[in-house]
């Protein structure tokens, strides 16, 4: 009996030491989100801009983010960990810390529903409301693999961040369209973008915004226009319906699909646009074909 009691006391003491001094988070919140990791990542960053004295940083990959919120003399840190469950659902685990009051929080939490807990739950609930609203603003449909054909094209080059991709396209669209037609070039399809570099840590992209053309000899020399042969390849395909500002949601969906199905891809998506955003209208009826090249 004495030995069993001693073991029990030792286990309790070890548990208390771990809980009070080693356990990294003060409080943990778990919630399921009906979305895939990339959309959660981008939504969290967008939502964070609406908060005061708050910063968010991506850690080792898109599934791990650190949010720091300063309120009065307290600094609360939220570690957002995202785990994909299936094509439409993810598990969010949010570890919350208040470094200056960690010991106090750990003592209080088992015995009362503290203001720290309530504030943490409210913040996560507010984000989930933002995410659920955003989910209704677009639709991504994953299709089969498809052989993307090659084509000659005329392009304008851009370097920007993901959230300004659509603005760059919108600014270039009238110029590209009018200049090509004005110089006697025959268009041979809908406009598209070819991502040449995607830095997922910095959310930056370099891309060519192009029109397929019928190649002529010679091609007219036009300032800011480059001519190239777009080389098609076998790719994963998705249909994106929604505003072009957030068409990168389809990129993340294709990456998630590729990971789950052990398909190696080159993270340089291609998008073909079937609507002119300058004409307005309900963005849910805009259609974009999105391709993610399969690695050879």
Q: Layout of helices and strands, plus pairs?
A:
Elements: H1 2-22, E1 27-33, H2 37-48, E2 54-58, E3 64-71, E4 74-86, E5 89-98, H3 102-108, H4 115-135, E6 138-147, E7 151-161, H5 165-182, E8 192-199, E9 204-212, E10 226-230, E11 234-242, H6 248-260, E12 270-273, E13 287-293
Antiparallel strand pairs: 1-5, 2-3, 3-4, 4-5, 6-11, 7-9, 7-10, 8-9, 8-12, 11-13, 12-13
Helix pairs in contact: 2-4, 2-6
Brief summary of the model shown:
By secondary structure, the chain is an alpha+beta fold. It contains six helices and 13 strands. It has two domains: 22-136, START domain (Alpha-D-Glucose-1,6-Bisphosphate, Chain A, domain 4); 141-293, Multidrug-efflux Transporter 1 Regulator Bmrr, Chain A (Alpha-Beta Barrel).
Helicity level: 25-40%
Task: Report the CATH topology name of the largest domain.
Answer: Multidrug-efflux Transporter 1 Regulator Bmrr, Chain A
* Rg calc: 25 Å
| Total discrete domains | 2
Q: What sequence of helices (H) and strands (E) makes up the elements?
A: HEHEEEEHHEEHEEEEHEE
Number of strands: 13
Q: Find the structural class using helix and strand composition.
A: alpha+beta
What is the percentage of strand-forming residues?
A: 35-45%
Structure description:
The protein has 296 residues and is α+β, with helices and mostly antiparallel strands. It has two domains: 22-136, Alpha-D-Glucose-1,6-Bisphosphate, Chain A, domain 4 (2-Layer Sandwich), CATH 3.30.530.20; 141-293, Multidrug-efflux Transporter 1 Regulator Bmrr, Chain A, CATH 3.20.80. It is 31% helix and 36% strand. It contains six helices and 13 strands. The strands form two sheets. Strands 6-11-13-12-8-9-7-10 form an eight-stranded antiparallel β-sheet. The chain has a five-stranded antiparallel β-sheet with strand order 1-5-4-3-2. Helix 2 (37-48) packs across helix 4 and helix 2 packs antiparallel against helix 6 (248-260). It is elongated. 25% of the residues are buried. The model is unreliable at 9-23 (pLDDT under 50).
